[in-house]
Amino acid sequence: MYMEYSITKIKQWKTMTLSDKLCHYKTQLDQRFEVFVDKLKAKQYIDSLKIKDLYTSKIIRILIDEKDIRRVDLHKNNMLKAAHGSNWNIDLSKKNGKHITFIKKKLKQWNRVFSEDEKQYSSIRPVFFIEEKLFCKYRPNSRLTDFKFFCIHGKPIVVSVEILINHVAHMNIYDLNWKVVKYEGFEFEKPEEFQRMKEICELLCKPFEFVRMDFWITNQGIYFSEFTFTPSNCKCYWGTVLNHRLGKLWT
């Protein structure tokens, strides 16, 4: 099968788990992937596609370093993110008590290459941005619910749903018929937007041997979150059974 972003396989490929294959995969990710993992460039890319029913969160301001943060930025509807990394985010809501000194310290710490180990990030110039804060349609009093599609050979296979319960992250994983394949103690009905979200995912994941496509759902519709090529730096959080099953599908 031809993939635009294909990789070279090693001899023992057929017997490897998904996490093992991801560890090999990340050795071959290079600057071709920068446009997808740089959060600002990824937004521009998604916007350029003009996909019906898919939105990106509004960018309020771009920051070069910690000197650019202002007290006026501390607002309940603002999120601060690093364009060049993963999970380098700060909720700027005043109720969270994030003092300006704390935020500047974080930005100074994050003003570097995100991961030497994950080469797709190595050439991205450190930069930060403030974007509008989004709110989940299905759990409006909690943080955004993440819908993360694991895609292999340009096709979504399973989707994880991640929520906070008592400030602790929990994750269920479903197949594309919304049957639970990994359960972590909460019920979540199939969203009415699920079919359209899956169709959008199919459009975006086509060029890749593996990608995790992440989305959010708000009252305004489906929002793009990010492309992820090395989830948790290839550490298996999806369970042993899925690790083997998804590994077999990646031929």
Question: Could you estimate the helical fraction of the residues in percent?
Answer: 10-25%
Q: How many DSSP helices? A: 6
Q: Flag low-confidence runs.
A: none
Count of individual beta strands:
11
Order the strands across the largest sheet as they lie in space: 1-11-10-6-7-8-9
Largest sheet: 7 strands, mixed
Structural class: alpha+beta
Task: Using the alpha-carbon principal axes, give the shape.
Answer: globular
Element order: H for helix, E for strand: HHHEEEEHEEEEEHEEH
CATH topology of the largest domain: the name is D-amino Acid Aminotransferase, Chain A, domain 1
Would you state the CATH class of the largest domain?
Alpha Beta
The total tally of domains equals 2
> Mean pLDDT, rounded to whole units?
93
Named at the architecture level, the CATH assignment of the largest domain is: 2-Layer Sandwich
Q: Using only CA atoms, what is the Rg?
A: 18 Å
Distance between the termini: 10 Å
Strand content: 25-35%
Can you describe what's shown?
With 251 residues, this protein is α+β, with helices and mostly antiparallel strands. The protein has 2 domains: 1-37 and 44-56 and 134-251, D-amino Acid Aminotransferase, Chain A, domain 1 (2-Layer Sandwich), CATH 3.30.470; 58-133, no CATH class. The protein contains 6 helices and 11 strands. A 7-stranded mixed sheet has the order 1-11-10-6-7-8-9. The protein has a 4-stranded antiparallel sheet with strand order 2-5-3-4, covered by helices on one side. Helix 1 (18-25) packs across helix 6. The chain is globular.
